[in-house]
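Field log, afternoon session.

UNIT: design team B
ACTIVITY: writing a sequence onto a fixed backbone
BACKBONE:
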């Protein structure tokens, strides 16, 4: 089996792996400024998507330009999420180099889409492929690829601990090669219940002091998780941005979430923002939490809320996820200021980072890999892939960290 890394190797973003020159696993974009896309030119016979986040599916429509029509395989929620992201990208960046596809390609996605559930083998580009629940977001999958000689387990993004929205992965299918994400390979997450309590106490304190809390959150997965936390702790909240639409998407697929009733209660507890900047300005003056995109402050309604609340040190910005280098969210954490809508803005409001990660930490990564001590391990999707691979090698694993553009034969 030949495995070529077109993106996601030694970095977080633009995941793309080509198997045997014919089967493409993921095809995402890196949400930097400007966005980055997988390297090289690829014309796969089929595409398999692990889950519906921008860095894994954001560039998929571009594969359908010209006369190319590869089938695209994914779970039902991943299909819906990928189309939502594509339409949003087109709306924001259509006609520029930041958007590598048109509405025509998005429409073609619906024509070549093939959906599959967990544990249901299917054929793709002369390979047998099976999805297993990865515990990352609804519809996320480990991807097992069998070419008749070698079995590759592409972990995609995964979590081994339970979240309110989805349960942690327990799948450990037999494999000869494991292509493993490593986003938090040097981090140990605190217990989720403790993180939730600290978040709730922090938000309540700010509201009691008369402040407003802006909670930047990824639209897919994190927004719904935060709404469920707010409902559980009776925190008054609004939800704004694409997270509203994604919440409705997840409610249409109750079999892919832990507790569909709890998600329904969270949706009823939150107030959906339906107006424009005038309504947002009024909301920003209230003693409430505002769960809004984007999670890295690189767009979305957060561009309206942050300028409104940034000058008051009683207010708070509670970041809830990983901040990629080069994004305004990362800048805010490191410098206390951020570029918002083209302007560098100092922020006097308090800035906190809450570790609501949907990725496995070091212990979670090692617990999965412990089932594959006899397998070849390829490490990707992380800022320190080489270091983690070296640490695994010292533990007796046959582990390496490929580079972008590299082809590994196994």
């Amino acid at each position: 089996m030949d495995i070529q890394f077109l993106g996601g190797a030694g970095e977080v973003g633009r995941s793309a792996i080509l198997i045997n020159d014919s089967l493409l696993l993921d095809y995402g974009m890196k949400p930097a400024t400007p966005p980055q896309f997988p390297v090289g030119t690829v014309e796969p016979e089929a595409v398999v998507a692990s889950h519906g986040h921008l860095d894994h599916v954001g560039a998929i429509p571009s594969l359908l330009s010209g006369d190319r029509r590869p089938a695209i395989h994914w779970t039902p929620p991943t299909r819906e999420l990928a189309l939502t992201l594509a339409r949003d990208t087109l709306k924001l960046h259509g006609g520029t180099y930041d958007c590598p596809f048109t509405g025509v390609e998005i429409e073609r996605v619906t024509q070549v889409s093939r959906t599959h559930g967990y544990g249901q083998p299917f054929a793709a580009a002369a390979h047998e492929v099976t999805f297993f629940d990865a515990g990352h977001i609804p519809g996320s999958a480990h991807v097992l690829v069998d070419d008749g000689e070698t079995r590759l387990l592409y972990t995609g993004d995964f979590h081994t601990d339970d979240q309110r929205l989805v349960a942690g992965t327990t799948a450990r299918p037999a494999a000869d090669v494991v292509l493993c994400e490593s986003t938090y390979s040097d981090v140990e997450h605190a217990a989720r219940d403790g993180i939730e309590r600290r978040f709730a106490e922090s938000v309540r304190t700010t509201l009691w002091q008369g402040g407003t809390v802006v909670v930047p959150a990824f639209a897919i997965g994190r927004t719904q998780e935060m709404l469920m936390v707010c409902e559980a702790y009776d925190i008054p909240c609004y939800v704004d941005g694409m997270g509203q639409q994604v919440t409705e998407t997840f409610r249409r697929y109750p079999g892919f979430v832990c507790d569909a009733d709890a998600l329904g209660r969270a949706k009823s507890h939150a107030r959906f923002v339906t107006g424009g900047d005038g309504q947002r300005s009024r909301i920003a003056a209230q003693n409430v939490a505002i769960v809004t995109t984007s999670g890295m402050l690189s767009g979305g309604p957060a561009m309206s809320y942050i300028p409104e609340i940034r000058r008051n040190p009683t207010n708070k910005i509670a970041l809830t996820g990983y901040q990629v280098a080069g994004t305004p969210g990362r800048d805010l954490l490191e410098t206390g200021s951020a570029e918002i809508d083209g302007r560098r803005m100092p922020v006097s409001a308090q800035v906190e980072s809450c570790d609501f990660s949907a990725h496995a930490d070091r212990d979670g990564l090692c617990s999965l890999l412990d089932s594959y001590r006899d397998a070849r391990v390829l490490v990707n999707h992380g800022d320190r892939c080489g270091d983690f691979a070296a640490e695994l090698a010292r533990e007796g694993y046959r582990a390496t960290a490929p580079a972008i553009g590299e082809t590994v034969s196994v």
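LOG NOTE: The two ends are 5 Å apart (CA to CA).
NEXT ACTIVITY: expression trials, pending approval
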